[in-house]
Amino acid sequence: MTEESTSPQISVSFVSEDENKLGGSGILVPVDISTNQLQILCNQLLGNSDDPVPISFFTTEGAEIVDTVRKSLEKIDFETTLKLVYQPQAVFRVRPVTRCSASIPGHGEPVISAQFSPDGRGLASGSGDQTMRIWDIELELPLHTCKSHKNWVLCIAWSPDATKIASADKNGEICVWNAKSHAHWINTLALNTDYALRTSCFEPSKRCIAGGERLVSGSDDFTLFLWNPKETKQSVSRMTGHMQLVNQVVFSPDTRSADSTLKVFELKTKSLYYDLPGHGDEVYTVDWSPEGTKVVSGGKDKVLKLWRQ
Fold this sequence. Notes:
Keywords: Nucleus, Repeat, WD repeat. It comes from Caenorhabditis latens. By secondary structure, this protein is mainly β. It contains four helices and 23 strands. The chain has two domains: 9-88, Ubiquitin-like (UB roll) (Roll), CATH 3.10.20.90; 111-251, 7 Propeller (Methylamine Dehydrogenase, Chain H). It has helices at residues 3-6, 35-46, 69-72, 193-200; strands at 9-15, 21-30, 55-59, 81-88, 99-104, 111-116, 122-127, 131-136, 141-147, 153-158, 164-169, 173-178, 184-190, 215-218, 224-227, 235-239, 249-251, 257-260, 263-266, 271-275, 283-288, 294-299, 304-308. The strands form six sheets. It has a four-stranded mixed sheet with strand order 2-1-4-3. 29% of the residues are buried.
């Protein structure tokens, strides 16, 4: 027998923060029901089965259900109905980015890295021409060329307040630039690029990113694999559509689609959503702006392309 079949049952009722009941006076569930299972049940009652949202649950005394009901509560009264206050969490809704608004030349060699600033108002790119460039997104024109590297600029990371930019090259050198004063060079460190990527890229705005943890990987066999690292070592889904190797993937801010080499995939259906054609050669880098309204891509054709809704 499974653990769920032997688990005692309790009656729970869902109420909103303004005390409106959902789904009647009580529903019998196992006392070992998890928060994920509570979310599925609550989304069904809300009519959100096809497009579920993350939901947090609290007792009327303020205790949060963070695991199973049994593990989250010190005392459980099986004779009465447990009232749970449900709080849907904010979810980012991103409309499709479908049109190329600008093709911006400037780099003398392939564009290897590109990244929007955390506030979505700045854009920086690194190239095989050993420069980092800062661009005006609204005018879609180059602003400044930052020269100090002696090799390909492989990765870029903005500071959380968008005032500084770190760039790392193939020699393992990192340069830190002042973005506010037009990219005046500040410092250099002999660190490898992997360290720069691991320590510099994080969510600075402290917003709640909805949904469970997901990992997507791209390969030289032209495929993408979607993973759930917390639950299984096996891939969740295999996604196809590319005709060449996959150089980079990035999640949209709402975590519902992944953009790789200008093919957008819908995570819910694990299928190709739409294409963004236009580059003249291989695409090496892609980034989604924090608010989800723009995508930047760059590659072997030495051109940055801005894509908008």
